[in-house]
Amino acid sequence: MERGSALFRSGRLTQAAEAFSLKECFSSAGVAAYLNAGIVFRDLGKDLEAFTLFEKAAALAPKDLDVQVTYGRAALQARRHGRAQAAFQVALGIDRAHPGALLGQGKLELQNGNPKEAAQFLEMLTKFKLSLSLGWFYLAQAYEAAGQFQRAEEAYRKTYKTDWSFFEARLHFARLYKRIGRFDQAWRQYAKVLLIDPRHREAGRNEKALGRLLGRSTEDIVRKPAPAQLKIPHPSSGRRKMPLILVGIGTSALGRPVLRKALAFRCTGPFRVIDPETGRQIKEGPAEEDFLIHAFGGGWFQVSDSSHRRFLRFKRAIAVEPIEQNNHTLSLREVRVAQGYSWSALQDRQFKGRIEARVRAGKIYAINRLPLEDYLYGVVTEEMPKNFPDEAHKVQAIIARTHALYLSRHAGRHRRDGYNLCDGQHCQVYAGMAGENRQSISAADATRGLVLRYKGRLAQTLFTANCGGHTQDSGELAGWTALPYLRGRLDGEPDMPAPRTPWELDQWIRGSPAVYCSVAEKMGPSQFRWTRAVPAKELERRVHRIRPIGAIKRVLIIRRSLSGNANAVRIEGSRGTLNIRREHKIRNLLGLASLRSTLFTMETERDPSGRPVEFIFFGGGWGHGAGLCQYGAAGRAMKGQDYRRILRHYYPGTLLERLDN
């Protein structure tokens, strides 16, 4: 059993299957051996072998709900519909509200061409398991197949409301709207898909055709800014002694500058214009007047006032700052935030400190220079929900401060663009003064100057939204550095066993273990456990952008970390193979809007010829899974742990010190 589990994690699935299938293993481990062997054969795409093994396990454990449901799913994949029906009925006889049995029975009825009967089971599922996006997705398909289009519309909407990242549902939704002649809504769904994947052929073709019909363009769905609600500045104390941070504003999903033709700004008080390269003051300007920075010709850029008169000209860069920085702020008009995400929007943003406008390729981009503690005010509750406990916010303030300084002093990832950090998820989310509130200010002030160090050096305080129950070693992720304070940690009580075998991992991910990061009162519906259905054709389309491997035959997880995360994936096609090892590339490739994490187990639905039709994911957590688990920090704070104890758990061996030490 131990050897089989180790082989499973290392991706040697054939050898793992052989180990679990030894007579000695069956005789000593009994039902557990059949279950583990069945999981491995399922992952190998050998549905008939998996079905046979699960059938034997079900005979040995007739009252075990999870075993019966797993047997039913295996029978469904092996197209043994009668056996699947019997297994699901046994499970529902024990527990009529079991989500897995209801989902399985609903899918069985769909495959048998009985959409009304399928809807009955799936309606029960969504009643008992309101947050299961996969339940709503298949219910929408059942309604659509039954001609109940209004109900299908509502079910598709609830699919992505329970999990905004389930963008595959938006494609089905768009097709439904187009089918029933609601072209404006169809166009909107296709345009949303293009925000995530600008190269999506179906979405691009339909968005263009419907857009011509309706007189719309993709940019029409980007929310336009409401009039800016200016805040009174709350400057951090002792700001003159703090390190200064340079933050790229309105950056791309990869943290690069998004170049603009023009940039509009306004200052609440009198301001000065500075040459950022020499520090020389060029000019002063009045309060409460709009100014526009734009190309003028001949390589020059011009700053014009509200009457379109030239205020000044420059070629490379200028900087603008309030003369009284403790009392006044700057605003930028129509900053594009969350570039590359479905919630991308144009917003007016208010900033402390200095705004630099820099020229590149005949366009401009903006940088905010401000004191570190003022920067943190705009970060803490952008990266962590505002309703989290105060101790969790203190944790976030400390690791955000450490992370900002580490990137500024040691990483240099955006040095060529002239700033230390970007304002998006690539570094950490910064919203300027729009992100400031009582919680963020209080957390930053309460931990003022505190950073984490390891052996005298600033620690790499990586953090993830939700680890799913167990964090990863940083060294287990391809391309990452193995650090002694970033080791995989169980996010539960010390006596809680972590999943070790394939069957335990499968049940861990499909279940809801009592770990700290499972804090229902603080979470959205898909932040701890999530589901996804990805059409094989959609995955093929993305794979072929990288390598033309032909029709996909199977998807294999060829290495797992100790936490269970997939660290390497192999996609086998009719004309070749593609291996993906980088964490973000695995997530981006397997999901249209990226999978929430790499902690997942997967099933493959096939047509009668054995060709994959759909890949079904059951996953846990949100993010890369390394470092601090934010929801785990919230759960620990709710149990009475203070920020020092929380930091010791996630970054063992680090020391909490002040910057002036």
Describe the structure.
The chain has 661 residues and is of the alpha+beta class. Helix content is 39%, strand content 21%. It is built from 23 helices and 24 strands. It is globular, with a radius of gyration of 27 Å.
CATH uppermost class of the largest domain: Mainly Alpha
> Beta-strand level of the residues, as a percent range?
15-25%
Total count of strands: 24
CATH fold topology of the largest domain? Serine Threonine Protein Phosphatase 5, Tetratricopeptide repeat
As residue ranges, the low-confidence spans are: none
Mean pLDDT: 94
* CATH architecture assignment of the largest domain: Alpha Horseshoe
Helix segment count?
23
Q: Which strand order does the major sheet show? A: 4-3-8-11-12-1-13
Q: Would you spell out the secondary-structure blueprint of this structure?
A:
Elements: H1 2-9, H2 13-20, H3 23-29, H4 31-43, H5 47-60, H6 65-77, H7 81-94, H8 99-111, H9 115-128, H10 133-145, H11 149-162, H12 168-179, H13 183-196, H14 201-214, E1 244-249, E2 262-267, E3 271-274, E4 281-285, E5 291-297, E6 300-304, E7 310-314, E8 317-322, E9 330-337, E10 345-351, E11 354-360, E12 363-371, H15 372-377, H16 380-383, H17 390-411, E13 421-422, H18 438-446, E14 450-454, E15 457-458, E16 463-464, H19 502-510, E17 529-535, H20 536-546, E18 552-560, E19 566-573, E20 577-580, H21 583-590, E21 600-606, E22 612-620, E23 628-629, H22 630-638, H23 643-650, E24 655-658
Parallel strand pairs: 1-13, 16-23
Antiparallel strand pairs: 1-12, 2-5, 2-9, 3-4, 3-8, 5-6, 6-7, 8-11, 9-10, 11-12, 14-15, 14-24, 17-22, 18-19, 19-20, 21-22
Helix pairs in contact: 1-2, 2-4, 3-4, 4-5, 4-19, 5-6, 6-7, 6-8, 7-8, 8-9, 8-10, 9-10, 10-11, 11-12, 12-13, 13-14, 17-18, 17-22, 17-23
